[in-house]
Amino acid sequence: MNKSLTDVIFASEKRKKVLLLLQGGKKDINFLLEHLKTKRTSLLPQLRIMEQNNIVSHYGSNYELTRIGKLLADEVKPFLETLETLDKGNSYFSTHNIDGIPEQFLKRIREIKDFVLIEPDHVDAQKLNAEYLAEALGSKEVYFVFTFMHPGTIPVLQQLLDNNINISVIDSKELTDKLVNEMPDRCQYFLSFDNLRIHSYSKSIGVCSLTVTDNGFLLRLLFNNNEFSNKQIVCMSPEGRKWGKDLHDYYEKDATLITEI
User: Among 3, 117, 227, 245, which residue carries the largest CB count within 10 Å?
Assistant: First the structure.
């Protein structure tokens, strides 16, 4: 009697990995053995189970997915990547306010699976991430979303401008009003640069801050009680960078470009 497809895929780590390995196309059994780091006597029974359930077929020593197998792989891979991402960041996501991340980006959370979590120590808590600053200075374009103004932000903006880097800044309306009221001359000075666009966003911005560079992004979220957190998510993969840039653009489409104060 055939097993349920759920059991076929998830009850065996080998079968699950075979499904994902074959998603890229036909593979020789030696390729599977090498990547799974297993023996032929251990793998063949699992392949037979997959074949009996119409997930794989084989011709000689070559194995490939059936149409049903391809359909399963297309669905299983994003599911597993989502699990991997949430499991990897469970301690962070469970203590920080992810409700502020728009739903369509939570549904794409697997795209940031390569992230690392950085927690500055007490001494560095008031400093900007030096490594990420170097990354920003080496970029052609840098995109910011702010709901608060870190003490080091203005010097960083000046460094980026001095390096002729194109910059987009989106501030929450509350932050915009605060900056215009407290430092109008500095605001007017920054508005004079052609390579700096400053926007004000009147709706709620759910993230604490976001910085997107050419190769990735840095994200801060608040704690669940809405207190400030020094912990930072940094993701430096092409897929992750697209997620971060799309999040910036999500806010930009409803933001107002500031041209004068």
Answer: 245
What SS3 state is found at 165?
A: coil
Question: 182 falls in which pLDDT band (50, 70, 90)?
Answer: confident
φ and ψ of 31, to 5 deg: -65, -45
Residue 182 and residue 198: Cα distance in Å, rounded? Answer: 17
**Could you tell me the domains of the chain?**
5-79 (1.10.10.10), 89-258 (3.30.870.10)
Instruction: Classify residue 172 as left (phi > 0), alpha (psi -120 to 50) or beta.
Output: beta
Other beta carbons within 10 angstroms of residue 157's beta carbon come to: 20
pTM: 0.82
Report the chain's mean pLDDT, rounded to a whole number: 89
* Long-range Cβ contacts of 139-142 (<8 Å, 24+ apart): 139/165, 139/213, 139/214, 139/215, 140/165, 140/166, 140/214, 141/165, 141/166, 141/167, 141/168, 141/213, 141/214, 142/166, 142/167, 142/168, 142/211, 142/212, 142/213
Q: Phi and psi of 208, rounded to 5°?
A: -75, -50
pLDDT digits 0-9 by tens, 140-150: 999 999 998 77
Signed CA dihedral, 58, 63, 67, 71: sign only: positive
* Strand ranges across the sheet with 232-235: 116-118, 232-235, 217-220, 209-212, 141-146, 166-172, 196-201, 256-258
Identify the DSSP state of 11.
Answer: S
